[in-house]
Amino acid sequence: MRIVRVCLLSALLLSIASVAAAQVTDPPVIVDAFERARTQGRLDDALSYFADDATVVLMDRGASPVVGKNSIRGFLQVTRGTPPLIMSDRHVVGSTVTWTERHPGQRPVDLSVQAVVEDGKIRSLTYRLAAPPAVAAPETDAAARVSAPLAMSGVALLAASLLVAASLTPRRQPSASALRGKLMASLAEFETRH
Length: 194
Hints:
Blueprint: H1 2-25, H2 27-39, H3 43-47, E1 50-58, E2 66-67, H4 69-79, E3 85-86, E4 91-93, E5 96-103, E6 109-118, E7 121-129, H5 139-168, H6 182-193
Parallel strand pairs: 1-7
Antiparallel strand pairs: 1-2, 3-5, 4-5, 5-6, 6-7
């Protein structure tokens, strides 16, 4: 029984250690730690989350990529100042983390950011101007999509009401004969004679 307890305890400790190790290399955790260090102005801590040969790219500025920790240090020093506001939740797909941030100033700028994290280090960080919000479709399109099923429902309701009305209309009684049973009496009399 004692051996079973020791085995269970060691399995539990190993699983806790693996979860802790996974969290340290988990892309969103690395990006959060980088953002926190950058926002607090801790340049060396922010730089520690980059791989030695990492790149930073400013897509819409036409600038050359910033490659290597020394160059990234210069980039972080230049961009230090008012921290950006995170505008959207982070989305994670594999080792890629994306989000949108706003850089305040006289003319605020919204940027889409994409970080690729491998082995617990940021390999690339790409900034590009965020796309403008999508224009909502005109309401006439929505009305047209609703009106077709509504029109069909109206036609079906009209057909059903006509069917009900036709079945509830009283039937005409057969017209009364002017002979008032004389034909039957004459036929009966004819049969008895022949």
